[in-house]
Amino acid sequence: AQSVAQPEDQVNVAEGNPLTVKCTYSVSGNPYLFWYVQYPNRGLQFLLKYITGDNLVKGSYGFEAEFNKSQTSFHLKKPSALVSDSALYFCAVRDMANDYKLSFGAGTTVTVRA
Amino acid sequence: DTGVSQDPRHKITKRGQNVTFRCDPISEHNRLYWYRQTLGQGPEFLTYFQNEAQLEKSRLLSDRFSAERPKGSFSTLEIQRTEQGDSAMYLCASSLGTGGDTQYFGPGTRLTVL
């Protein structure tokens, strides 16, 4: 079984401040980890993924995420948030042994105030 | 690259009616996935295809649901005898089919069952 927990329903930050969105995961084997962003009435847009190698992964729009195997975490970060980053963010995991099914967290709503 | 497209974007139907959704994947992608997203939740896996073969179905996919991918190109998802509980966003995604590949999502079809 595989699952994702996003412990915060909402994150509020001021523009220009650092942004962190938390994610922890559970898989029976080795994980593939993903972050997606969703704007209202739109599909999911891919931000970044961890497959193997360097634990720090850089993605689109200045986002990055750090894979921490001991803490089973994959937190999303951005050094300086923009108002346009306000959206719904989903963390997802896929078991390397069952490399098709994505399991998503419930999502975190990010609001960046000007 | 025109991305994943879905049609229709919105569908309103009465309980008991049948509905069919279409998904056109990115042209070179071998795998096609269907997910369902309800309000306040992350997407949940329904089924996926490797070319024209349907390889996995979630237990969420009741007997009223059927999906096809003739000739390994576009896919259709049909729901028979719709129920109010079927109201959701139905998302389609596609990927290359290689290890750790990224699933790219379409804009979704929002179904409302009255």
List keywords for this structure.
heterodimer, A: 114 residues, mainly beta, six-stranded mixed β-sheet, four-stranded antiparallel β-sheet, 12 strands, 0% helix, globular, B: 114 residues, seven-stranded mixed β-sheet, 49% strand
Beta-strand content bin of chain A: over 45%
Structure classification of chain A: mainly beta
Q: Which H/E pattern describes the elements of chain B? A: EEEEEEEEEEE
Straight-line distance between termini of chain B: 36 Å
The main β sheet of chain A shows up as: 6 strands, mixed
Global mean pLDDT of chain A:
95
Largest interface: A-B, 25 and 26 residues
Unreliable stretches of chain B, pLDDT < 50, 5 or more residues? Answer: none
Q: What is the helix/strand order of chain A?
A: EEEEEEEEEEEE
- Portion of residues in beta strands of chain B equals over 45%
The share of residues in helices of chain B is under 10%
Explained architecture:
The complex is a heterodimer of chains A (114) and B (114). Chain A is mainly beta and 114 residues long. Chain A has strands at 3-5, 10-14, 19-21, 24-26, 31-38, 44-50, 56-58, 64-68, 73-78, 87-95, 103-104, 108-113. In chain A, strands 2, 5, 6, 10, 11 and 12 form a 6-stranded mixed sheet that branches. In chain A, strands 3-9-8-7 form a 4-stranded antiparallel sheet, with no helix packed on it. A two-stranded antiparallel sheet of chain A has the order 1-4. In chain A, a hairpin with a 5-residue loop joins strand 7 and strand 8. In chain B, the strands form 2 sheets. In chain B, strands 2, 4, 5, 6, 9, 10 and 11 form a 7-stranded mixed sheet that branches. A 4-stranded antiparallel sheet of chain B has the order 1-3-8-7, with no helix packed on it. Chain B starts with a strand and ends with a strand.
Please write out the topology.
The complex is a heterodimer of chains A (114) and B (114).
Chain A: E1 3-5, E2 10-14, E3 19-21, E4 24-26, E5 31-38, E6 44-50, E7 56-58, E8 64-68, E9 73-78, E10 87-95, E11 103-104, E12 108-113
Chain B: E1 5-7, E2 10-13, E3 19-24, E4 31-37, E5 44-50, E6 53-57, E7 65-68, E8 75-79, E9 88-95, E10 104-105, E11 109-113
Parallel strand pairs in B: 2-11
Antiparallel strand pairs in B: 1-3, 3-8, 4-5, 4-9, 5-6, 7-8, 9-10, 9-11
